[in-house]
User: Fold these one by one.
Assistant:
Number 1:
Amino acid sequence: MPGAGPRRPSWRQRLAATLEMPKDVIMDLPRVTVLGDLQVTVENHRGVVHYSPERVLVGMNKGRILITGQDLVIGVIHEEELTVTGLLDAITFQRIG
Amino acid sequence: MALGLLFYLLGYLEVRVAGARPERFLNLAVANGIYFWDVRWRDGELHLKMGIEAFRRIRPIVHRSRCRVRILRRRGFPFAWRRAAGRRVLLAGGLVLLACFYLLSGFVWFIEVRGLKEVPEEAVLTALARLGLRPGAWKGRIDPDRVGEELPAIIPRLGWAGVYFQGTKAVVEVAERTVLPADRRPEEAPGDIVAAKDGLITHFLVLRGEGLVREGQTVRRGQILVRGMVGPAEGDVPPGDRVSPPLLVRARGVVRARVWYDAYAEVPLRMETPVRTGDAYVRRIVKILGKPVVVSGWRRVPFDDYQVEETIVRPREWRNIAIPVEFKLLRYHKVIRRVDDITQSEAVRRAQVEARRRILEEVPVSAHILKESAQVVQLDRRLVGVRVMLETEEDIGRFRPAGAGAQGRVTEHLGRRRP
């Protein structure tokens, strides 16, 4: 990633801290809920970039969430929420920009 | 999930999406507010589920994403219903069966009577049928409370009846009255007819029992007129024959007799009556813990002749706590004696009225008054005395239960005096 060294918190982050508001609202972050190794729910997603039974790539603001596992199924998908169920191995965040 | 039930009711589709980038189709559809669930890879194709209404809206998206969409299965109630359409007769049969069950359970099929001892069950069932409760009767037309109330009116031996339904069975619970044997019933208890008064018998009619007197005979009060006993008279029994004991019965009969009454009354020629003058003296007393304290009017009563009127006021009891105070008001009314002189003839009249009044207290209303006479027996300057005599014809028979002695309880038999 370019620009090494400690990252300064963005003005949005500081605003969220000052106003004591949930960061996901201010910063347009996905809210990811993990239920053991069985289920991942991503709120505020940006669509499915890739889907296969071993790999689900979910779009998010400034990045992607990579969910790997076996027999992955998209249990529910609509505008606000996306739920992946199956046997989960890893959840990885890929930052862009 | 409640949403799952909703989709089942509305109907949903299982769809296969084929194409190079099915994710594109998914994202476009989701961006258009479409809801998918159970999205999975199966045999190199994307299978997913969606609502019927959503399927209509994905048509343009399918084109744009260059995918092919095929319906694999239609699910949910609307499709199940349509499939069942072919078997509508079967469905109708099921509904008819249900309706039959419901209808048939509305009838009374069995009647169970509980608690019977001596009354035959048929009698109860017949009476119930008269009240509308019979096998085959429609339950809605029967009011169990009313049947329970009216059943004892039809069968007097039943003291109480309660009716309720148990499914198609009507349960009738009854309680029988305990019936006294005939000779123990009060109205059938054996006994004699005795004379209620002294008199001379004018009419004598025995309805049951043994007559002991004759017409024209004088009887004394308490004398047995009709004996409550039937059986062979002593002379009737042939010698050697077995003598059955006489049977005790309740004597019945009509015994009319002449009865004489007399009464005497005196009336003084001069009468003094106290008359209040209107003057009054008031004394107030408060009684605390039983000790009287005169509050006002402690002087001597200033009249020689007075009448006292007393009024006592007690505080109301409050929760069983009696306040031990009592107010007493004594009002002394001054009176003067008014002297009224009446004439001798007026005094005679009043004495006669008074004597007659005393006699009539004794005479039953049903009596015929045959003769009446009045006699002045005393007449002087102070008072007049009148004697009134009355002759009646009345029923003097009174029932006396067997076992009661001459001094025993004599119940009135006939000629009851009106109150």
Note: The two ends of chain B are 85 Å apart (CA to CA).
Number 2:
Amino acid sequence: MGLEVLRAGLQSTVQDQGRFGYAHLGVSASGAADNFALRIGNMLVGNPKHFAGIEMTIIGDKYRFKSDAYIALTGSEFEAELDNKPIPFWQGWSIKKEQILDIHFTKTGARCYLCVTGGINVEDVMGAKTTHLTSGMGGVHGRILKKLDELNFGTLDDSIQPVQKLNDSITTDTKIIRVTKGIHWSWFNNNQKNKLFQHQYQVTDLSNRMGLRLIGNAINSKKESEIITVGIPLGAIQIPGDGQPIVSFVEHQTTGGYPIIANVISADLRKIGQLKPEDCFQFELIGFGAAEKLKVDQEIFLHSLHHD
Amino acid sequence: MELGHEISESTHKKIFTLITHLIHNPIQGVVNIHPGYTSMLFTLDKMANMDDTIQAVENSLDMVQNSEPPEANSVEVPVLYGGNYGKDIQRVVQFSGLSESEIIRRHQSGNYLVYFLGFSPGFPYIGGMDQDLTTPRLQTPRKRVPQGSVAIAGGQTGIYPFPSPGGWNLIGRTPLEIFNRSNPKNSLIQMGDRVQFKSISKDEFDQLMESNGT
């Protein structure tokens, strides 16, 4: 049971919800850039949430199925065809052996996911299947997928009833990214802080799963631009010497020496995963309580899908 | 969690002791711990209760108050200094006012301690460098630093185990594999280790690279 890659896209990797428990060795969790989309994909095919799928970036892959399968495509909608006929996103779909799934360019955001009943089965590295490209760990030999790769599907011990269909289509508006104050917030005077929120930032092409480098208003700190190295969480907005913000992402460095002015809220991390180079967006400051509520609301929404 | 205000071996000892304890006695809801020089960052599960978690961390800190960290290992790291392998050594010359050969001599004579691993998998933050070699980070980080690069940022030194982006000043390169992907707990350099740098020639570097099979 499995599939063969007939053509590999721009940057396709095996991803799950992340590799936790190794940050003290410098290993960040990695995991799906849009873990919300991967979780829904798993629900649509009846998998537990921690199962692995394939993450595609801007240009998708072409696959031949070596067995019958039940799949779902989620995330940003890409041009996608099954045996030359369009296949919809956000719903489960039965595939026959030898069928060809061809996923081309994105129509919207940066990433989409292919989930398969049983999950993509690669060897566990430190307890997870997620690919960490920077260190070459996990997934398929720690690298992006390439032509002629063959991936096996796992099996489900207990069958979980797949979520049949979503009531509402899921869209991701990446125009506003909400943030809370970072640990070095007080290092910046009001004028500099305001600059972070006044205008849009553009995502540069020096952006990847490790972090997004932005260009826009340069921000200067009151103090020197270096701090005593501290832990960096996912979604930290760091201000290096040149004043252009860097957003730490799923393969982020576990510690860093640039001050953290703000942090992207948990509920909006999936939006970061859908930003592409040249996209523009604006940061918006919210309180910790509001951020906490949005995180919980997102979890409640995911749980509600099982009961609709 | 702040455990001190400046980089010191005593603050390191506190952090190292606590983290060793927490690796063996994990706290429910804590999914990752990021040690730094004077602080620790705890990453929580989405559904963890913040107050309960903080209480549990404080209890653990109380418990290890009088404990000693594990004994330190000694590791020798061969380095090919300067030239194409240490492209920023001239920046260190500029900031320190010392000659290149003096910088290489002094870099080898530090009393080095691995304060923690951070940044990227297996990257050791090494303190104890001669403070005359202090050099600020690059204004704009490099997109790609070669594997094995030995570098300086401020008053600290470190080694890049993998090619990665980075803003540290590159002064040399080691041919050794720093991080063991298949068994990270057996990596060459660990938190709390004592490190010695040793200058090697291009020939020795090439030989060691070859015997690594890299």
Note: The CA atoms of residues 146 and 163 of chain B lie 5 Å apart.
